[in-house]
Design a protein that fits this description.
Length: about 450
């Protein structure tokens, strides 16, 4: 029973391994497809949201650059510096910018609102001025510390030409608050946040103000992402995150990117749910398969093999009347039953031959014993005849002519007794006649002697 149980166990274990392997392979394949699909969906979502966000940022920044360019054009059209201040006092400029100003080649600085500047302030030494002069085109600066307020600002700067010659630079300052609000409003599905970065990896706008002007390595010290296309894996506060960048097209002089940070666990939560479902399905499938397979194998294989094994054991023990199970089947079990039936037929025939051989051996033994008994009887009969004749001859030698052998011999030897008795009788008669004749002769002789006398 243990061996049969081991066979069933091995079959079930092998089948379970096959099912688990098949489900595992299928799950890995589906998991890979779902992960690719999810990644693609995340990329598409980022691309869609990123494009909208980048366009919004570009439009907002370009609008400020355009306003600044209008200031530059207007400044280039006035005859002297006295006409610059009225241009800067425009209500639109006042509402859109923290300050609007013009610095010229002589170092003069005209601004509105007319906030006091630090002593020795020279606009020609400021980044916005130098970048605009160097580019000879509209420029946007990256965030820097405002000299008057000490706050982080961004400047739009445009060279001012007067009569075809460089006069100076018109610029405007705006805080990061609007950009921060704009970037915070980017829809990332509630699973992360967006930020703005330069092509060099400097963070320009971030929900965490402490990271502004910092590098990507400062924000993501582990698996620091690089500016580029595609989704990258990184960590943030020990949690796996996905990072992707969408370029902000159409900005003057700068290459900025809207960065997206998405919680990887949240993004791939559907995959985790699928893995759990696949695990449960695998366990259920294996359980159902084991029950079905155990029942199926027990009915179609194990039980017939067990019955056939029992029949073989009975045949081996000499019970040739046992019925062979499964002879009517046309499958491999039926073939095995047919082979066992041949074994049974051979066993029956072998038993018959052995019985006949035993019978023949018994018959030969009886015949031998009978022959030996007959020989013994013949020898006894001969010995009886020899002894009888010896006795008779001995008596005859002693002169006993009246002795006869009265005990009959065997039929085939009794003639010897009769002949002996007849011979003795004849000898007796002859001797009697001889004796009578002798007496007659003796009487005659006596008479002769008497006559002679």
């Amino acid at each position: 029973m243990s061996k049969r149980s081991n066979l069933m166990t091995r079959i079930l274990v092998a089948a379970s391994c096959v099912v688990v392997g098949a489900f595992a392979g299928f799950s890995v394949y589906i998991d890979s497809l779902q992960r690719d699909t999810t990644t693609k969906a995340v990329e598409e979502n980022i691309a869609s949201s990123g494009t909208q966000a980048a366009q919004s940022v570009a439009k907002w920044l370009n609008g400020r650059v355009t306003l600044t360019a209008m200031v530059a054009d207007a400044t280039g059209n006035v005859a002297d510096d006295g006409g610059v201040q009225p241009i800067l006092k425009n209500d639109v400029l006042t509402s859109e910018f923290m300050s609007t100003y013009v610095g010229n080649e002589s170092g003069k600085f005209i601004t509105w609102p007319d906030n006091p500047m630090p002593a020795g302030y020279d606009p020609r030494q400021r980044p916005w001025y130098q970048q605009a002069i160097k580019a000879d085109a509209r420029v946007l600066t990256e965030p820097y510390v405002d000299a008057s307020s000490g706050a982080l600002i961004i400047s739009a700067a445009v060279p001012v030409k007067r009569d075809g010659k460089l006069y100076g630079v018109a610029a405007s300052d705006f805080s990061l608050d609007t950009l921060v609000t704009m970037i915070k409003g980017v829809d990332v599905g509630g699973e992360g946040f967006a930020f703005l970065a330069s092509k060099d990896g400097q963070i320009l706008v971030h929900p965490d103000a402490k990271l502004v002007t910092k590098s990507l390595a400062d924000a993501f010290p582990i698996d620091t992402p690089a500016i580029g296309s595609g989704i990258m894996n990184t960590e943030l506060d020990g949690k796996p995150m996905l990072v992707s960048f969408v370029p902000v097209q159409g900005l003057p002089s700068v290459e900025w990117y809207v960065g997206f940070v998405i919680d990887a666990d949240a993004a791939y939560s559907a995959i985790d749910q699928f893995r759990i479902a696949a695990t449960i399905a695998t366990i259920l499938a294996v359980g159902v398969m084991l029950v079905f397979l155990a029942t199926f194998l027990n009915r179609l294989v194990i039980r017939p093999v067990t019955d056939m094994t029992s029949a073989m054991e009975k045949l081996a023990s000499g019970n040739h009347n046992v019925a062979i199970p499964g002879e009517e089947r046309t499958d491999q079990i039926g073939s095995m039953a047919a082979a066992v039936a041949v074994f049974k037929a051979n066993a029956v025939e072998r038993a018959r031959l052995e019985s006949e051989a035993d019978a023949n051996r018994s018959l030969s033994e009886r015949e031998r014993l009978e022959r030996e008994a007959q020989k013994a009887r013949d020898a006894a009969e001969v010995q009886q005849a020899v002894d009888g004749l010896a006795t008779g001859l001995g008596r005859l030698a002693d002169g006993d002519l009246a002795y006869r052998i009265d005990n009959p011999f065997a039929d085939r030897l009794d003639r010897l007794r009769a002949d002996f008795n007849n011979s003795v009788a004849k000898l007796h008669d002859t001797l009697c006649a001889v004796g009578a004749n002798a007496r007659g002769i003796d009487a005659g002789a006596t008479e002769i002697r008497s006559a002679a006398d």
